[in-house]
Amino acid sequence: MRSAPGWPVELADGPVLLRPYRRSDATAWSQVRRANQAWLAPWESSPPGPWVELNSPSAFHYVHRDQRRSARRGESMPFAVCLREGGQERLVGHLNLGNIVRRAFCSSYVGYWIDAAVAGRGVMPTALALAVDHAFTVGGLHRVEVNIRPENGPSRRVVEKLGFREEAYHPRYMHIDGAWRDHIGYALTSEEVLAEGGLLARWKRHRAAAR
């Protein structure tokens, strides 16, 4: 089986690390997912069933298997988002470049979530900037899209801080939390950021200007 160009890979900036998932992540993944049910459940599409069971260590092994298969087919780049602090590494989120289409399209959809305990610290904007820069260079993609429910203010702020372009409103786009939900479509193309030294460089300039 082939992998996507540039995959597997580890990406890092300061304490933020993106890396492929490991089988040994099961317990940490389950703990953070279960602890964040109220924070995450309203925004995620998931099969029916109790949150505790869907996010158990045993469920992780099925998720991990599917992620590995998709990555090996070149259809996705799934990352564990980790924080390295005090000599320790902690899993605090997830980011996936999924539905990768090559040839004349060279595009991907991005999905992500973050532990509420570290939200607002710039972890997810940094992680997304790292992933997009990798996608636009080694990954060989030209465009990335992010679709977010209008009510999901924290997730929208991530892409807006990074300068993603709002370009569409999708009525009844995805079935989430018991109903078909509208989404706002955001996107970037490689030309919009590579001339500025990349999305991470742009994000750092934005943070410095805000201080």
Folded structure, characterized:
With 211 residues, the protein is α+β, with helices and mostly antiparallel strands. It has one domain (11-210): Aminopeptidase (3-Layer(aba) Sandwich), CATH 3.40.630. It contains eight helices and eight strands; from the N terminus they run E-E-H-H-H-H-E-E-E-H-E-H-E-E-H-H. The chain has an eight-stranded mixed sheet, sandwiched between helices.
Task: Lay out the secondary structure.
Layout: E1 11-13, E2 16-19, H1 26-35, H2 37-40, H3 51-54, H4 57-72, E3 77-85, E4 88-101, E5 107-114, H5 123-136, E6 143-148, H6 153-161, E7 165-176, E8 179-189, H7 190-194, H8 199-210
Helix pairs in contact: 1-4
Q: Write down the CATH class.
A: Alpha Beta
Q: Tally the structural domains.
A: 1
Helices and strands, in N-to-C order? EEHHHHEEEHEHEEHH
According to DSSP, the number of beta strands is 8
What portion of the residues fall into strands of 2 or more residues? Answer: 25-35%
The shape, in one word, is globular
Q: Mean pLDDT, nearest integer?
A: 94
Radius of gyration: 17 Å
Sheet with the most strands, sense and barrel status = 8 strands, mixed
Helix content: 25-40%
CATH superfamily: Gcn5-related N-acetyltransferase (GNAT)
CATH architectural grouping: 3-Layer(aba) Sandwich
Number of helices: 8
Output the strand order for the largest sheet.
Answer: 1-2-3-4-5-6-8-7
